[in-house]
Protein: Tryptophan--tRNA ligase
Organism: Ammonifex degensii
Amino acid sequence: MRILSGMRPTGYLHLGHLCVLENWLELQKEHECFFFVADWHALTTEYENPRSIKEYTYAMVADWLAVGLDPEKSVIFVQSQVPAHAELHLIFSMFTPLSWLERVPTYKDQVRKLKALGKDITTYGFLGYPLLQAADILIYLAEGVPVGEDQLPHIELCREIARRFNYLYAPIFPEPQGILAEVKLVPGIDGQKMSKSYRNVIPLTASTEELAELVNRMVTDPARIHKHDPGHPEVCTVFQYHRIYQPERAKDIETACRRGEIGCVACKKDLAAVLDRRLAPIREKRAEILARPDYLREVLEEGKEKARAVANATLARVREALNL
Ligand code: SF4
């Protein structure tokens, strides 16, 4: 199956992204994958401050490679380097009813959320975001797109666009499926959703010392004052992390916590060490990659060429179907 997925370069990656990347690694083993840096999508919310997008793009690709994405197996590229996405988006915009975009559930929700953070995204570009996504997917004739449940309406829209195009002009596009991945939801250090807007993330680049510091700030059971007080791991963020990163020991930790046999300081130290063991090889690999900036550029250059070849072939068929 041909798979497509991307990430927006709006900041440095964190542990939440690592779960997504672990899923990509699994897909890479079995399928033909296209992974792209969605820099045009980043512009939809960062249009006032586009300067950092390039820096985040390189940092993101370095992380992808450090985690194990393999440019020999997968096509890794930057969206804005393949102009065919934009042309297909434009063509799709000609026949997409406005109501299809307005009814996408994430639209109003995101506008409201970002307004609360002082960002106005009541723009033409943001409304068209799911349509650009449809172009990103369909330009590669991708059949599978790994998504979270909240993104399923975007895939449904993409399928509708494919059907409408196929009906109006020529049967070119497959109807892609959303692949619901079992991505673990890692909470932020305050127990809320991990997000850079909430300043509660654990960056993938965190050093041993930074990890210890961040874990130290995690919210635990507020009712537990003394080391031997019985704890309630179900309300403790540290325990949620233990369950994700060392499930084999979670039961013992839970029992020890409930019986007041383990103190929060020791429990946090244990977690910081576990996270450090997980991130240390990624740190090392990233340092090697960043020491060879030419390598990063080569990967993206090669990815661009491979992506363009496929995208331009689809676009040629589209133009022919429209007699352009
Ligand atoms: Fe949380 Fe561990 Fe403290 Fe229990 S002992 S409240 S699991 S940090």
Notes: The longest strand covers residues 2-7. Residues 220-221, 224, 231, 233, 236, 238-239, 257, 262, 264, 267-268 surround iron/sulfur cluster (CB under 6 Å).
